[in-house]
Amino acid sequence: MTDAAYNFAYLDEATKRMIRRALLKGLAIPGYQVPFASREMPMPYGWGTGGVQVTAACLTPGDTLKVIDQGADDTTNAVSIRKFFERTAGVATTERTAGASVIQTRHRIPEKPLTEGQILVYQVPIPEPLRFLEPRESETRRMHALEEYGLMHVKLYEDVARHGAIATSYAYPVRVEGRYVMDPSPIPKFDNPKLSGMAAIQLFGAGREQRVYALPPYSRVVSLDFEDHPFEPTKADHDCDLCGASASYLDEVITDDAGGRMFVCSDTDYCAGRRAAGQRGRLAPEGEA
Amino acid sequence: MYVATKGGERAIDAAHQWLAEERRGSPSVPELSIAQIREQMTLAVNRVMAEGSLYDPDLAALAIKQARGDLIEAIFLIRAYRTTLPRFGASAPVETGGMAITRRISATFKDAPGGQVLGPTFDYTHRLLDFKLMAEGAAQEAARKPADPEPAPHILSLLDRDGLMEPLAATDDTPRDLTREPLELPADRPLRLQALARGDEGFLLSLAYSTQRGYGRTHAFVGELRIGTCAVEMEIPELGFAVEIGEIELTECETVNQFTGSKTEPPQFTRGYGLVMGQSERKAISMSLVDRALRWEELGEENTGAPAQDTEFVLYHADNIQATGFLEHIKLPHYVDFQSELELIRKLRREAAGVQMREAAE
Amino acid sequence: MTAFDRTLTASADAPLLSVQDLTKRYGRRIGCERVSFDLWPGEVLGIVGESGSGKSTLLGCLAGHLAADEGQILYRGHDILAMSEPERRLLSRTEWAFVHQNPRDGLRMGVSAGGNVGERLMAIGARNYGAIRNAASDWLTKVEIDPGRIDDRPRAFSGGMQQRLQIARNLVTAPRLVFMDEPTGGLDVSVQARLLDLLRGLVRDMGLSVVIVTHDLAVARLLADRLMVMKDGRVIETGLTDQVLDDPQAAYTQLLVSSVLQV
After folding, report:
1. pLDDT at B146
2. Model confidence over A78-132: pLDDT tens digits?
3. Does the beta carbon of B262 lie under 8 angstroms from any beta carbon of chain C?
4. For A219, left (φ over 0), alpha (ψ -120 to 50), or beta?
5. Closest C-alpha to A116, from A199, A195, A198, A197
6. Inter-chain contact A161–C120, Cβ cutoff 8 Å?
7. Which parts of chain C sit beneath pLDDT 70?
8. Residue A119 CA to its chain's centroid (Å)
9. What is the mean pLDDT of chain A?
10. Which listed residue (A71, A243, A273, A281) is catalytic?
């Protein structure tokens, strides 16, 4: 049921064109934050307005959209954004990673490798990787322009000095094609390796901060580290209790007030797919599969 | 047994229904009409119009009703609606000098051409709860001075004529439009004023207050505060001249601020400016103080590091829709990032415990 | 760094820094006017004068913190004022260093001593934590700070320690040219003496060229090979330090010297 009062995918064509121009610029300069005239969207800033605008600018009537939040299709904000596009664009939607041509995500990269022709749109709260070291936008833009990234490593140095390890576990900064330092959005660092060499186009939208940036397919993306304290993608040291997966990112679920907990795939489609194929974890319900 | 939470969609629908029920309140009480809100909650309507950047009292009243009186939510509704509206063009600048005045006061001159008009103000009410309002009753007709035929020029323009005010260069440049371009620094004064005009009243009030208490002090006097209606005119290309398309209520505040002069310029007063839709005088005065504080650089003043002098700080934090969205987004699920923090802290604690055990063993 | 390759050692018969007619105005007021001098490798040049004499403005222009209005600055033959900002910034974090009067302006107060010293190394590409930490530890020792305090923040340090930390942070990349703005200002006399001693040793051992601004002629006498006396934005006397201090020519210098002798 498309809302006829609104243009396809809510935004007017001139706005979409403006966003596409910014995205093309972003693809031409991987990792560079392109300012764009973010619109006021009918959802709060910080709730995916950047991702929604990027998705709106990319969608065509023939697209199939998947929306995930924390890896899951059924979290409330994912449901809300999917409904928004069902209503304003009337596009097909899916929960299957492989079946989607555009995937909007918050905080995760799907476990199943993406393919050429797919677009992954990230919702970004704070696009500036240097922001918590230097609060001034005018100064951080200069630091990027001049490739002055010493401060970024000072942060990592301080982590190792204090904790014996780099204490950044999500929104772990990366360097793109040896040039721009980029915030990959608050994905867990477990997902960082998937950023590099990905076949799909990766687009990042920050609505409140009025920035988009992008990674063209097969970009080289390196997580910052020290030679003697190398980057480590980590996850909970368990298998999924529902599907038995050993290499997927896990959510921890507290099951009682006596310390009981279980670990389940954060990527619900991946988990469901494995269970449908007969894989079972420690606590998979009887009779399933 | 754990089952992945499903039914987010049903929960959302149910929440919306419940919200509608709560908005209505007890059905035994008559429902508010939009006209009632528009006519009796005027200052709320004005604030929603000003910070929503859309002059439409009916829509603002509707937004207030829909938002259950949460004005920031109402402003949000108006902004989201405004962004979808087609843009036909821009009006000619409004001539506030020709305002049909309902209130006009000056703190710097006892009298001036056009006179002082106290107007409908809370200023000298005694702030005693008026229990008569608990019963419905009609207000008495106020005594009004007959409309003053004398024009009321801007009071600061009188000082201007004596060369006591800093001169302002007139320009025909089209200012940048915050709603169509990303905010990029440095921001010139028109852009700053634009951001302040739709900025949060509470934020500007506190910033302005901080300048009065010494954080970027500028010694402001209210040269003139005027409230009234102004004609909005638009140039119609086919006609070749401007026609009046309506009128809007505005509050304008001009402050006179001290300036010591420099070696190249004789001493003269400087100014701060505030212009807000509707009757919003607290906001207009706050805006003019903050505007003045932000001008330290062009006026060759010292940057004392006061928050109100910091353009980037003020402009990036004045918008309550941006602020509330980002603030409230921390309600959204963050399982994934929290999980990665959990793992990291467990790992670091394991390692720290390992070190202690090794040390104890030695 | 190719533009300033260290293999192209500055020849001893060419100045490291050559300044011609440098002028900076603030509106109608003169900051400094038509200042010219050469600084040779390994030389320490002191700029002395009262506050307001233009010495800090001059230093700011030399270091690129202020934009000069006229004149030329050649560093190893490169025209500094014609350089792009990236080139100039690269220079300031490799071959140049700047020691501020107030250590707070030159340190990151929220970052550990080790991080403060390591920053310049990381800024030019050092990526081995252990090596960065060792270098930081060595430098703390060199500036007489207990390396056991490597993880403490400068806030916990005394004023003298903060200043020594600032010096370590600046010298860790072995710059050729160091600008110093009243490096001993604001310190107690006994702390000053220790710092001056340390500075003198480092300058000699590392063969640094230094431009040091000070109003304190005792500091100038201890550190500087040559002096430039400034008044109202202009250089009114130059010469070897002993010569200027023992046999001042300009009336103003005579006043300046006699006032210090009374202290």
Report:
1. 61
2. 999 999 999 999 999 999 999 999 999 999 999 999 999 999 999 999 999 998 8
3. yes
4. beta
5. A199
6. no
7. 1-12, 260-263
8. 11
9. 92
10. A243
Provide the shortest C-alpha distance from residue B67 to chain A (in Å).
14
pTM greater than 0.90 (yes/no): no
Q: Is A240 a catalytic residue?
A: yes
A26-36 residue pLDDT tens: 999 999 999 99
CB B253 within 8 A of CB B222: yes
- Contact yes or no for B201/B283 (Cβ under 8 A): yes
Cα atoms in the 13 Å half-sphere on the side-chain side of B221: 14
pLDDT in tens, B218-273: 888 899 999 999 999 998 888 888 899 999 999 999 999 877 666 667 778 889 99
Question: Two tokens at A198?
Answer: 């990905």
C12-71: per-residue pLDDT in tens?
A: 578 999 999 999 988 778 889 999 999 999 999 999 988 888 998 999 999 988 889 999
- Contact status, residue A100 vs residue A66, Cβ threshold 8 Å: yes
| Cα gap C22→C60, rounded to integer Å | 12
> What string of DSSP letters covers A175-233?
EETTTEEE---S-BGGGHHHHTT-SSEEEEEETTTTEEEEE-TT--EEE--BTTB----
Closest residue in C to A150 (Cα–Cα): C123
Known catalytic residue at A31: yes
What percentage of chain A reaches a pLDDT higher than 90?
A: 74
Cα separation, C219 vs C195, in Å, equals 10
Task: Match 């401007």 to its residue by tokens.
Answer: B242
Q: Token pair 């108006």 is at which residue?
A: B78
Q: Which residue has the higher pLDDT, B108 or A98?
A: A98
CA angle at residue A258 from A257 to A260, to 5 degrees?
90
Nearest CA in chain A to B8: A76
User: Token pair of C78, please?
Assistant: 């490169």
Q: How would you class C12 by CB atoms within 10 Å of its CB: exposed for 0-12, middle for 13-18, buried for 19 or more? A: exposed
Cα–Cα nearest to A114, from A192, A197, A233: A197
DSSP states along B277-314: ESS-HHHHHHHHHHHHHHTTTTTT------GGG-HHHH
pLDDT in tens, B275-310: 999 999 999 999 999 999 999 888 877 888 899 999
Structure token digits, residue B215: 């954080």
* For A70, nearest residue in chain B (alpha carbons): B336
Question: Mind listing the pLDDT tens digit for each residue in A140-157?
Answer: 999 999 888 988 999 999
Q: Is C63 exposed, middle or buried (0-12, 13-18, 19+ CB in 10 A)?
A: buried
**Are the C-beta atoms of residues C93 and C123 closer than 8 Å to each other?**
yes
How many CB atoms within 10 Å of residue C21? 12
Would you tell me how many other CB atoms lie within 10 Å of the CB of residue A116? 10
β-bridge partners, A263? A252
